[in-house]
Amino acid sequence: MINYADRLEKLPPYIFADLERLQVDLTRKGVDLISLGIGDPDLPPPGVLVDSLKKALTEPGSSNYSSSAGEDYFRKSVAGWYEKRFGVTLDPQTEVCALIGSKEGLANVGRTLLNPGDKALLPDPGYPVYAQGSTILSDATPVVFNLTGEGFQPDLSNVRTDDRTKLLFLNYPSNPTGAVVDGDTLEQAVGFCRRHHLVLCYDNAYSEVCFGSYRSPSILQINDAMECAVEFNSCSKMFNMTGYRVGFAVGNKKVIAGLKKVKSQIDSGVPKFVQRAAASTLDGYFESDLSAERNKNNETLKKRLDILSQGLREIGIETKPPKATFYLWANIGAEGATFVKELISVGVVATPGVAFGANGRDYVRFSVTEPTRRVEEAVERIRKIPVKRVPPNSFQEA
Ligand SMILES: Cc1ncc(COP(=O)(O)O)c(C=O)c1O
After folding, report:
1. What's residue 23's pLDDT?
2. Whose CA is nearest to atom 1 of ligand 1?
3. By C-alpha distance, which of 19, 15, 14, 398 is closest to 209?
4. Does the pTM exceed 0.90?
5. C-beta of 394 in contact with ligand 1 (< 6 A)
6. Spatial CA neighbour of 219 closest among 229, 210, 227, 209
7. Which atom of ligand 1 is nearest the CA belonging to 203?
8. Rounded alpha-carbon distances, angstroms, from residue 127 to 77, 116, 158, 191, 300
């Protein structure tokens, strides 16, 4: 008889894998589904990235192993980008580590810092990997703090720690709420982590999916953050390259060294041609062609969010398009999971908010990662759902 390790039994199902299976099943049966469930951009990667990828594929050595910490040129490009984008100076050797997507790094930071029985603080609602892939799979205990109320900001003054509490995860722009953060909140988070001797794991995966004049900050812009913080970012959403798998962790030297040590025992790095393409795209980030492409990308996402938000509002679901991310977090005023079933009955897939924690129970997350005309069609389909809802006090500042 084969028994799984106890830690595997403790894992709840990964809702996105379930959603993917459901979509495949229904599509096989011929149902035309509009997929607003998983946050995987339909828009193409920048032209410069694709050109560079093709070229790098035939470079000598491109089929060989990379290093799990990343190639020197890639780490230098990440450091150069941080300097230009955030004014943050990083040593590419000691303060940057390549990741096979930021999800990998967020999971492996648990193995780096948590002993069995330790505790990690994480946001509810929040990206499930903090609790599951990182904490539970390190035999540690997730302890949630609430992101409720206006703006989905943390109130760390209410958060208790003890000598087993080791980590705090924070994510802005936020998946799933789309909320953004201000400098004061980040300062408080750094102060809190320093006072309580916690490592602050800051997830900035959506830093470049921002609209209008809003620019997402880096935690490393906050004074003394380097003493306690490590930031996870990714080319996935930045360059619409989720499947190529490349991200990076930057920040506190000791955490980065530990993460590299864990990774050296587990993986053999991001393919070199992917690192080469990501590096040259980061290098050219502020050049006019790429800037124009990125702006157009974000304008398209913003337009879709506006269309969907307006459509939901017309059937009594009050939502406000966010300043960042491609998610619309809609308060249904009733079980979000029930509404998701109604959505599926009209051929629209969305994610029940409870997938992101108990505080998401009354919400549904829509990801506008289908072509604009399909988002418009989704609105038409949603209008056919008979029950109109007017959620109580639902207007949330994004
Ligand atoms: C908040 C957040 N962090 C990290 C990730 C991981 O992205 P990747 O592993 O593609 O970098 C995601 C993916 O959806 C996310 O939503």
Report:
1. 79
2. 175
3. 398
4. yes
5. no
6. 229
7. 3
8. 27, 22, 21, 23, 24
